[in-house]
Design a protein that fits this description.
Elements (H helix, E strand, L loop, with lengths): L1 E2 L26 E10 L2 E8 L2 E8 L5 E2 L2 H5 L4 E5 L12 E2 L2 E5 L1 E6 L2 E9 L3 H11 L7 H8 L5 E6 L1 H9 L20
Antiparallel strand pairs: 1-2, 2-3, 3-4, 4-5, 6-9, 7-8, 9-10, 10-11
C-alpha cells in the first residue's frame, strides 16, 4: 500500500477516477501498487483503488510528482514519452537509430493516463535472432512467427490504443467500467 505524505488528519483522499478534475493541484491518493516501471530518473506507478487505475510519474525521491509541465505549458492534455530502454520493451521493438540501448517506441498519455503504446518493429530476420540471443531466449518457439521475416518484410510499426481509457477520459467517467461493454474485475469474469 502506498500513499503520499499526509500529517494533517483533515486531508481529503482523492480517488483515481477523480484525478482529472484535480490537474495542477496537490492531492492525496491511496491504494494498491499495481505496476511500477522506471525510465531513467522517472518512476511510473500504476495505482489501483476502488474506483479504478491511475498512472503517475515521479522523480526520485517520491516527494514531488512529475506533473507533465511541458504538455501543460503548451496547452495540451497529451504527452508523448519516448526513449524507453530496450530491456523494458518487447523483443520485436526496433532500437533507436544512433542509440541502440534505447527503443524506437513511445507511450501517449492523455490527462495523465497511458492511452497508446507503440513503436517501430524489427523487420529483418537476423535482427530477430540477435534480439533473442541478447535476451538469452531461444528462437525455436517463435519459428512460425519468424518464417515471414526470413523471406523479407518492409519496415513497419504498430501501436495499441486503450479505447475504453480514451472514452472514459473524454466523457469524464468516474470509472472505466462505466464505458466498457462487458467490464471485468475481481468479482465479475463473464458478461
Amino acid at each position: 500500500m502506498i500513499s503520499s505524505v499526509a500529517t494533517v488528519p483533515s486531508v481529503r483522499r482523492t480517488l483515481a477516477a477523480e484525478l482529472p478534475r484535480h490537474v495542477g493541484e496537490r492531492v492525496t491518493v491511496q491504494g494498491w501498487l499495481h505496476r511500477r516501471r522506471t525510465l531513467k530518473s522517472v518512476v511510473f506507478l500504476v495505482l489501483r483503488d476502488r474506483s479504478g487505475l491511475a498512472q503517475a510519474a515521479f522523480t526520485e525521491p517520491f516527494t514531488e510528482p512529475f506533473t507533465e509541465p511541458e504538455a501543460m505549458e503548451h496547452g495540451s492534455e497529451f504527452l508523448f514519452v519516448t526513449g524507453y530502454p530496450m530491456a523494458k520493451r518487447p523483443f520485436y521493438t526496433h532500437p533507436e537509430p544512433g542509440r541502440p540501448q534505447y527503443s524506437n517506441s513511445f507511450d501517449l498519455l492523455f490527462r495523465g493516463l497511458e492511452l497508446v503504446t507503440g513503436g517501430q518493429r524489427l523487420h529483418r530476420y537476423e535482427d530477430y535472432l540477435a534480439a533473442f540471443a541478447s535476451r538469452g531466449e531461444p528462437a525455436e518457439p517463435y519459428a512460425g512467427y519468424l518464417a515471414a521475416f526470413r523471406h523479407g518484410m518492409p519496415p513497419h510499426g504498430g501501436f495499441a490504443l486503450g479505447l475504453e481509457r480514451w472514452t472514459a477520459r473524454l466523457v469524464g467517467a468516474d470509472n472505466i467500467r462505466r464505458v466498457t461493454l462487458f467490464p471485468r474485475d475481481l468479482y465479475r469474469l463473464s458478461p
